[in-house]
């Protein structure tokens, strides 16, 4: 197999990797840039699929699906790519299902599910405790924050087991972890969780649909393009050049070669 040489090789064709590749090309069109992606698609955590719906087939975002007016960079990208957003619809009946496949499916029409007084007290104290801790976290340099090493040595799950009394609140926070981070609480550094919440302006802002919150807006599906939020990655890949984005190309080894100095 003949060798290929590129100035820059980006690993991963998610939004970050594709944005980095496109920015490099814009800064210096002479650079040869290649993006390698192990999956058979671009998009990373954003993936949109055709699923059965009331009127036949509809497009559904199965991964990351929300953007916020406070996320200025992605909003600028959406505008630049000629896409549109719409507010997350919240009126009407909602479906609430936590606790595993055998748990009862509940519905509600208020802003949040109804909880017992004890559960509400547990939930309120948890938010107060977390938000108080986020106030001391440096978003720019998390490790400079008070007790940074302690919080970084424990997981979100560790914190939950120590400070949450009720099973329901544990299940709710675990569900939120899967929605926001795509990971289990046992896989997340508690310091990272605090930094992420601090950057959002508070824990609830990661989950609310109010202006500036994490679940405020969705990307419109366009008939000719389809794809919800995955449209962002597809359009970035088109601008980079499909020949420069290789799918099914898992990176298994990276070697860093040190060039001997002239003195040596």
UniProtKB/TrEMBL annotation:
<protein>
    <recommendedName>
        <fullName>Amine oxidase</fullName>
        <ecNumber>1.4.3.-</ecNumber>
    </recommendedName>
</protein>
<keyword id="KW-0285">Flavoprotein</keyword>
<keyword id="KW-0472">Membrane</keyword>
<keyword id="KW-0274">FAD</keyword>
<keyword id="KW-0560">Oxidoreductase</keyword>
<dbReference type="InterPro" id="IPR050703">
    <property type="entry name" value="Flavin_MAO"/>
</dbReference>
<comment type="similarity">
    <text>Belongs to the flavin monoamine oxidase family.</text>
</comment>
<dbReference type="InterPro" id="IPR001613">
    <property type="entry name" value="Flavin_amine_oxidase"/>
</dbReference>
<keyword id="KW-1000">Mitochondrion outer membrane</keyword>
<dbReference type="InterPro" id="IPR036188">
    <property type="entry name" value="FAD/NAD-bd_sf"/>
</dbReference>
<keyword id="KW-0496">Mitochondrion</keyword>
<feature type="domain" description="Amine oxidase">
    <location>
        <begin position="15"/>
        <end position="255"/>
    </location>
</feature>
<dbReference type="InterPro" id="IPR002937">
    <property type="entry name" value="Amino_oxidase"/>
</dbReference>
<dbReference type="Pfam" id="PF01593">
    <property type="entry name" value="Amino_oxidase"/>
</dbReference>
């Amino acid at each position: 197999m003949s060798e290929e040489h590129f100035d820059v090789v980006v690993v991963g064709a998610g939004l970050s990797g594709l944005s980095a590749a496109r920015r490099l090309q814009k800064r210096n069109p002479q650079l040869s840039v290649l993006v390698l992606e192990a999956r058979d698609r671009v998009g990373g955590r954003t993936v949109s699929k055709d699923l059965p719906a009331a009127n036949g087939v509809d497009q559904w975002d199965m991964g990351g699906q929300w953007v916020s007016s406070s996320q200025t960079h992605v909003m600028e990208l959406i505008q630049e790519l000629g896409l549109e957003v719409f507010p997350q619809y919240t009126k009407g009946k909602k479906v609430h299902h936590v606790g595993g496949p055998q748990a009862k499916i509940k519905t509600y029409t208020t802003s949040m599910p109804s909880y017992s007084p004890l559960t509400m007290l547990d939930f309120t104290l948890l938010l107060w405790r977390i938000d108080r801790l986020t106030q001391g976290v440096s978003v720019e340099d998390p490790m400079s924050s008070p007790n940074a090493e302690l919080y970084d040595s424990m997981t979100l799950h560790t914190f939950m087991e120590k400070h949450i009394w009720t099973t329901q609140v544990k299940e709710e926070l675990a569900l939120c972890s899967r929605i926001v981070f795509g990971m289990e609480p046992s896989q997340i550094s508690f310091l990272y969780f605090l930094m992420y919440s601090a950057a959002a302006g508070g824990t609830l802002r990661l989950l609310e649909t109010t202006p500036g919150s994490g679940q405020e807006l969705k990307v419109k599906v366009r008939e000719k393009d389809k794809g919800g939020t995955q449209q962002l990655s597809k359009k970035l890949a088109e601008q980079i050049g499909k020949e420069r984005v290789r799918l099914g190309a898992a990176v298994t080894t990276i070697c860093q070669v040190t060039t001997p100095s002239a003195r040596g």
